[in-house]
Amino acid sequence: MSKGILASAGSSQPIRITGAGPATIRAAEGEGKDAKLASFEGTAYTGAVMRPGGWFEDLIIDLGGVEVPSQHRPALRQHDHEQIVGHTTEVKVNKEGVHVAGLFSGQQEHSDKVVVPAKNGFQWQLSIGADPITTERLEPGEEADVNGRTVKGPLVISRKTRLGEISFVPLGADGDTSATIAAQQGGPKMNPWHLALKDLMTKLRAAAGTVELAKYSDGEIDKMTADEARAALKKCMDEEGKAKAADDDDDDDDDDGEDGKKAKNKSKSARALRIQAEVDQVMTAARQQAATEHIRQSAITAAVRKHLGADPAGHEIELDGKRVILIAHAIGQNWTVERAELEALRAARPTGPVGVPGGLAYATTTPEVTGAVLESAVLHALRHQLLLEDDSFYLDMAPDGRTPIRRVPARIQAEAQRDFRQRYTDQVQQAAHTRFHGRITLHELLSIGLRLTGYTGSLDLRSEGGITSALKAWDYLDRQNSIRAEGSSNASFSNILANVMNKFALQGYLYTEQTWREICAIRPVSDFKATKSINLLGLTQFKKFGAAGELVNFTLGDQAFSNQADPYGGIVTIPWTHLVNDDLGILGQVPAKVGQGAGLALNDVIWALWAAMAAGTVNGDDGVAFFRTGSLLTDAAKKQGKAYKANKMSGGPSALSSAALATAKALYDNQIDPNGNPLGFEGTMPTLLFGPSNWVTALELATYRELVYGGAAAAKQPQGNIWAGKVKPAMSRYIENASYVNSTTAFWLMFNPAVLAVIEACFLNGVDTPAVLQAGPDYQFDKPGISIRGTMPFGANQQNFRGGVYSVGA
Which residues make beta-bridge pairs with 100? Predict the structure, then answer.
């Protein structure tokens, strides 16, 4: 499910539309260093009115307003940005349409998924991705001239459209589009028209007086398509007939005697009859071979569809370590019907529910409406709300407007997007598109979901009583099946809802500030009891072996401050009025708010503690204010393990600047362990934490390679910025908020929290994202509707004051 981020005056939906022109895929040529990549070309869009996937109305793209950002556009498989098969080398837009040509330059594992099935005869369809910038809607009966034709509403006209990518898909909005492959390996040898033409050429070369009619060599015939071979065969037969008629005319003008004419005519007639008989024999054999081949292909198609369903999306199987389209592969490799059916049977064996890898319940590769398919359909319908698949959702931009800064850890992004790819495979998404076309309603979801759960009674989804009865039936069936929302099963409607809602809950959670991840150590806990982590500054310095060769025992003390996870959560009920009104969007909006609530609670706990540490109301493990300006360096303190250096600076020179950063870096580097030794943590880039007012200054210091100082007061004019790439910027809006630190000038330098943390967040079982579950209707009996509860147990506490330096900034 590919998405675009749009700024549209009309619709916010990206256009995924199947083109109307045939596309040609050319096989790779040459070998070794002289090898050329396989290529493709075709018309991706002809300017006609079409119904793109996910659109509720017909649409036409004004060819005069198509923007092509560059000639090199990505070529994908199934609109999946993880499956790059190549790129375009040329994109032309004229009054006939959008024409593309390109190369299969992607990784072989992806490009082979398109090229190999095409070689085997599978007909791909081209699909283009485009973003509507400005749209115009024609009301019913209204007319307009677009692309040289008159169109009538209701209709959406995309007056300004930006071309994105093109994709190869097995099915598309236009069933007439197809992609063919030239220079098929082994194709002509299996085609009866090629065989018949070769046979005729052989016979004509052998027959006296007909060598000149044998005009095609075997090599030339191999290069022909099936239609070209058939046309050439017909042409040769027509020319042979004309040659026979010319011979008859010559006989009429011959000056030989009557006996000589009779003998000559008899000889020519015999030769003509023999040639005609041979041609007839060749044609009969060709027709028989064509009929036999047609029967074989039809039987293979029927056998595969019998076990794998009619949708070609379900025909892709694993064979000898490669993914192939079974029907096309079986036909191209001249398999018997029995062998094709055997592979189809193997592919249809139960392994797990569609979209649930490793499941053991039941499975089929046919596009049935399973739990994963139903979830995918809902996500398609809510695609304008869902951003987890967009890479830009996880990034911010630097002040230059070009440099991306990661807002959410790459791990969280990878986990979220991997979940989509694993559960909502190409097959599942194709099944969802085929069944619902991106337009499932809430009532359809409730009705089909209840049927999947096992409900067989009548449904009334237009009244409070009907909704309440349906929800009670749903809860009862879930209990009978012993399946709760926490599990994973195609048979649980609660699970279907939970899987959908958790996507939006995660999105709402990630919308809240994630800067706490840059300053907090994250630790999993298994229960709600207080627990301590290991003190990384224990006495672990190596000692010389003793006289008897013994080793010194190290001591690993606990951190002074324990941590403890507490249960946090809440519950919200979607009123039955929204269910009656068929409001599908509520399934995205409400969980997103629940997820946002989890993020707000976590940030509140962490930044309230941080404010207390900055204010000096929270102490370090030695009883002194966590951030302190004084040092304790006496020998007695070192022997007792109580030595420390200042980790706080204040006053006018402490406002963020290159000079202030240098002072803070010196404090940071000169931190010592409790015994007075340098910390010695090399290779850890310090994190620079700051508030919104310091955004530009901090980003200039952290990212720009050069800084220019001007004015008479400037003592030096550096050509380069020594801080670029030396600190990791992290901005928090909580620093300047009056309820927290409340400072526009403060900043901190901190060690990587995985090395030495000043603060730690703990999560039950290590799950640092909220869980959203559907509660049964009896949970809140007085509030009919769907009750959603969100939970996220967590806790936070200060740790080692030596892990960071605080600059008050004023």
Answer: 42, 91
What is residue 352's predicted lDDT score, i.e. its pLDDT? 40
Q: Residue 350, class by beta-carbon neighbours within 10 Å (0-12 exposed, 13-18 middle, 19+ buried)?
A: exposed
What pairs with residue 406 in β-bridges?
A: 395
Token reading at 647:
């980790």
434's tokens: 């085929």
State residue 672 phi and psi, 5-degree precision.
Answer: -125, 160
| C-beta of residue 153 within 8 angstroms of C-beta of residue 142 | yes
What domains lie within the chain, and their CATH numbers? 15-182 (no CATH), 371-511 (no CATH), 519-537+557-810 (3.90.1690)
Q: What is the DSSP letter of 756?
A: S
Beta-bridge partner residues of 156: 59, 137
How far is CA 189 from each of CA 222, 225, 300, 340, rounded to the nearest angstrom?
Answer: 7, 11, 19, 20
* pLDDT of amino acid 358: 36
Quote the percentage of the chain above a pLDDT of 90: 22
Residue holding tokens 């010389």?
A: 544
Single out the residue of 444, 447, 465 nearest to residue 457, CA to CA.
Answer: 447
Q: Quick one: average pLDDT of 94-123?
A: 84
Nearest-angstrom CA–CA distance, 589 and 691: 30
Tens of pLDDT, residue by residue over 166-213, are 888 766 444 333 333 333 333 333 456 677 777 777 777 766 555 566
Residue 94 CA to residue 229 CA, distance in Å, equals 34
Please, are residues 793 and 520 in contact by the beta-carbon 8 Å criterion?
no
Q: What CA–CA distance (Å, rounded) separates 127 from 19?
A: 6
Q: Which helix (H) or strand (E) holds 182?
A: strand 179-182
Tell me if the pTM is above 0.70: no
User: Tokens 């298994």 belong to which residue?
Assistant: 526
